[in-house]
Write a structure and sequence with these properties.
2 domains; Alpha/beta knot; alpha/beta; 60s Ribosomal Protein L30, Chain: A; 269 residues
């Protein structure tokens, strides 16, 4: 079980995994950094503890650590208990959720492994906003998407903000890089998927029409604002749109993805 360790020393070196999370060049989850995964709040920490990501330690106020006691029964890591004030000094900001956990990264499947066991996948291009990435993963987990493939220009799904916004679902939905880009889409097609590019173009087929065709589908989604590049659109098998009311031509990428995930997953279930 977890070892409960009480400390009121903000300089305690055992807390270094949690230190200065608001300082960009020192963050342990930043690209090129130590590669740690950080979970915030009891719900997300529980999902991390139940995932394949090996936990290293927890840090929290006593009430939150007590709430997690059943989840920590078989987890042999230190759980550091301190005050909210000391925790804020260590982390660099006041954490309303009252508990953090850090873990090492787990081995990820490659794109071909994900495709082999999937019916609906999301393929992202240029989705560089961590909150959008997190929301996409949360929607994917909720609406029956089997995996996510990351093309060029995508943010790291395991960045702290992405993990938080996803409510820990980036730890449950398998993902992999799809390279090279966009010619890697040929791997998706060779695995038996139809590549459907989501776009507001008026000449695109409607989402419901494409979903009704059935079959394995890879939904291609572009960045907020510019959307998919011309090269990615040209590499798709079909352009698909969500019909909208007059005067509205687009949705936030995570919202649009949720609508499309629902329609596509329902068609194969």
């Amino acid at each position: 079980m977890a070892q409960i360790v009480r400390t009121e020393d903000e300089g305690d070196p055992r807390l270094d995994d949690f230190r200065d999370l608001s300082t960009a060049d020192r963050r342990p989850d930043r690209p090129g950094g130590r590669g740690l995964v950080i979970a915030e709040g009891t719900v997300v920490v529980r999902r991390l503890l139940a995932s394949a990501y090996p936990p290293r330690a927890l840090l929290g106020v006593e009430r939150r650590i007590d709430e997690l006691a059943p989840d920590l029964a078989d987890v042999p890591v230190p759980a550091y208990v301190t005050s909210a004030e000391v925790m804020a000094e260590v982390v660099g900001f006041h954490l309303n959720r009252g508990v953090l956990a850090v873990a090492d990264r787990a081995p990820q499947p490659d794109a071909d492994e994900i495709l082999a066991r999937s019916r609906v996948v999301a393929v992202l291009e240029g989705v560089g906003d961590h909150e959008n990435i997190g929301a996409l993963f949360r929607n994917a987990a909720a609406l029956g998407v089997d995996g996510v493939l990351l093309g060029a220009g995508c943010a790291d799904p395991l960045y702290r903000r992405s993990v938080r916004v996803s409510m820990g679902n980036v730890l449950r939905v398998p993902f992999a890089a799809l390279t090279p880009w966009p010619s890697g889409l040929e791997r998706v097609r060779a695995a038996g998927f139809r590549v459907a590019a989501l776009t507001p173009r008026a000449d695109a087929r409607t989402l419901r029409e494409v979903a009704a065709d059935g079959g394995r589908t890879a939904l291609l989604l572009g960045s907020e604002g510019p959307g998919l590049t011309a090269e990615a659109l040209d590499s798709a098998d079909v352009a698909v749109r969500i019909p909208m009311s007059e005067g509205v031509d687009s949705l936030n990428v995570a919202t649009a993805a949720a609508v499309a995930f629902y329609e596509l997953a329902a068609a194969v279930n």
